[in-house]
Amino acid sequence: MDLRKLKTLIDLVAESGIAELEVTEGESKVRIVRSTPQQAPQGYAFQTAPMMQMPSQAATVAAPAPDEPVVAPVPAGKTVTSPMVGTFYRSPAPDKPTFVELGSTVRASDHVCIIEAMKLLNEIEAGFDGVIQQILVENGQPVEFGQPLFIIA
Prior knowledge:
By secondary structure, the chain is mainly β. The protein contains 2 helices and 11 strands. Strand 7 and strand 8 (about 120-125) form a beta hairpin. The longest helix has 13 residues, at about 5-15.
């Protein structure tokens, strides 16, 4: 389970009224417990099955140096960001066409995607006039508040 999914789950537990959430994905298992004021903080537990590597693979895998910051490339154009935590959908329904494709011309008021949060479907507007240059999120992927979704030029 990647860090983005884990952060989304933590945020959902924090925003909802549930006290505990346990998710199993493949061999990974995550259990998130919300502490209450009368309880001591219990924190978060994350368990995974051990990963095995071949000796030749281990020699070729290199971690970035701890003193070198990892910098993501800055895309050109205006960025449409997620206004909330939720699940990103490119179309209004599974059997319907997507709102936009690469190269689509959009107006500021056009809907470009849906973000589902707490069983509510929120249509997201482009916010800018232009052409879709990049789609940065896969359909059905969890997104965080402020996460870039589209690049419009």
